[in-house]
Amino acid sequence: MAYQAGGQRSELRPVPECPEAQAYLEDYAALLQTVPFPSVVVDRGWDVVLANNAFESLFRGVGPHPTAMPWDNFLRFVLFHPDAGTVLGEHEARWCLPMLAHFADAVERHAQDSRLQAIRREIAQDPIMEAAFRQGLPHWIRAVGDAAVEHDGAIRPLLHPDPRWGATDCRIVGETPRTLQRLGYTRLTLVLRQPRRAASAPRRRAGARRAAGHLSVVPAPEA
Predict the structure, then answer these.
(1) 50: helix, coil or strand?
(2) Can you name the residues that pair with 158 across neighbouring β-strands?
(3) Which pairs count as long-range contacts for 106-112, CB under 8 Å and 24+ apart, including other chains?
(4) Number of Cβ atoms within 10 Å of the Cβ of 99
(5) DSSP state of 61
(6) What are the two backbone dihedrals, phi and then psi, of residue 78, each rounded to the nearest 5 degrees?
(7) Is 47 within 8 Å of 13 (Cβ atoms)?
(8) Domain architecture of the chain: domains with CATH
(9) DSSP 155-172
(10) DSSP assignment of 172-198, as one string?
(11) How many C-beta atoms lie closer than 10 Å to residue 214's C-beta?
């Protein structure tokens, strides 16, 4: 049984054989569905174990891909899916580099993990990504510090397909209970923030408009 909250997963992932762990994940899947924001549980190779409907709705417009669908493996989606930039705003700078930094840390700590090594080989096959991994990434990590590999608390741009959200930001919140940690899983929730609004013209009194002869548009300062 695969513990995907929705039904778009392209293949089944292994799940714990322990009945208690299975029962816990079933209950946790039910809990995940009550969360209004996109929320996902991944293992150390970023294979998706659980994802709620809000997560799947966020990526509903992406096209098919044999290995990089967001509800299969989120790291692969960020790095390799050609549609990733249609949902993940400022894709390269704000999503790819932090994910590459996290990946570099993971592959160093889990050098024998075959899934991580497979991703490493795919990176090596792309000259631009390989150059970013070998040369650009170390420089970027030195510039931003250890926070580069920490997702919790990061604010990143999104392009939500729901027009009620549209171009917005999310804060990534890591909230992994001890039982999930013991299973080797991590939960991340993308807490959507208020949509960015277009700047509007300030209101002016009618007398002022007549005196000026025209209405100038001054962008409102960002909050």
Answers:
(1) strand
(2) 88, 168
(3) 106/44, 106/45, 110/44
(4) 20
(5) T
(6) -60, -40
(7) yes
(8) 19-195 (3.30.450.180)
(9) EEEEE-SSTTT-EEEEEE
(10) EEE---HHHHHTTEEEEEEEE-PPPPP
(11) 5
Q: Which residues contact 153 (CB under 8 A, 6 or more apart)?
A: 171, 172, 173
CA distance to 22, 36, 78, 138, 172, per residue, from 149 (Å): 30, 26, 15, 12, 13
Q: What is the mean pLDDT of the chain?
A: 83
Contact 136, 116 (CB under 8 A): no
How far apart are alpha carbons 40 and 54 in whole angstroms? 10
Examine the pLDDT at 59 and tell me if it is beyond 70.
yes
Nearest to 165 by CA among 87, 94, 96: 87
Q: From CA 153, how far away is CA 170, in angstroms rounded?
A: 10
Task: Report the pLDDT value the prediction gives residue 14, as an integer from 0 to 100.
Answer: 56
82 pLDDT band, cuts 50/70/90, is very high
Handedness of CA 140, 146, 150, 152 (dihedral sign): negative
**Number of residues that make up the chain:** 223
What is this structure's pTM?
Answer: 0.81
Q: What is the mean pLDDT of residues 166-190?
A: 95
